[in-house]
Amino acid sequence: ASATQNRYNINAELMPQPRVTRAGALATATYEFSSSLEAYAELNYQRNTNDEFLSASPITNLNTVILPADAVYNPFGVTITNSPTAGANLVYRFTEAGPRITETTNEFSRVVAGMRGDFARTWSWDASFLFNHSTSHNDLEGGWLSQAAVNAALADPNPATALNLFTNGNIRNSPETIDRLRSNATRDAFTDLMSF
User: Whole-prediction pTM value?
Assistant: First the structure.
């Protein structure tokens, strides 16, 4: 019998482009006081949501991972370190955690109000106020892992909850162990623009 070959297809969960949902509204209004004086306003709102899917996280995505010499699932009996300095001594992909999913929601609102008109038949003028507000919210919805949680699980002395990097089709980590590794980080940003 031949040994099981590790031929994980990293493209299986990739999408050719992000899943995007867009919604928006635009309203404009004008009011004419006279043939030479007009007020105007504009309201604009846009909300875009992007869902991106990547293959399951490789262990090299984490900066420094240490498998202690006395770890429950260390068959070598020596400490093994993965880091930018030490190199990739461990080759592992967290397929049990599923694909990496990132959702980004961007919202944009804009308000413009102003007046314009003519002066002395040869001049025209326009004065306005503009306010833009943009927000971005990023959720790591699935498949992303915490470096600290991975290192803690590798050093866990309990075989029932420790992380085993030497899994295969028959030997798997428990769902509870994988759930403790997940990173549910969020990031937020905003920008405001005001002009006269």
Answer: 0.73
